[in-house]
Amino acid sequence: MSELRSVGQVARELSIPPRILSDLFYSHHLDNNRCPVVGGRRLIPNDYLPELEEVLRERGILETEAV
Asked: When you count CB atoms within 10 A of the terminal residue's CB, does the N or C end of the chain come out lower?
């Protein structure tokens, strides 16, 4: 299984408020099945990060990558 990170860890790495990620999970823009809540914490597998970052870019939260 892939290494897991918390919403807070991912938010710090991306320099965004954790609430943004939580809201995207709540509104089903991010995959709740791939990122389950365990012990009150949502766990995000490392292999889901590219998809998560793409959603953030599509919504204008992260800058698009230079081509």
From this structure: C
In a domain, 54, yes or no: yes
Q: DSSP labels for 2-45? A: --EEEHHHHHHHHTS-HHHHHHHHHTTSS-TTTS-EETTEEEEE
Burial string for 47-56 (b: 16+ CB within 10 Å, else e) reads ebeeebeeeb
- Per the structure, how many domains does the chain have? 1
Residue 65 within any structural domain of the chain? no
Per the CB < 8 A criterion, the answer to whether 45 and 7 are in contact is no
pTM above 0.85, yes or no: yes
14-38 pLDDT, tens digit per residue, is 999 999 999 999 999 999 999 999 9
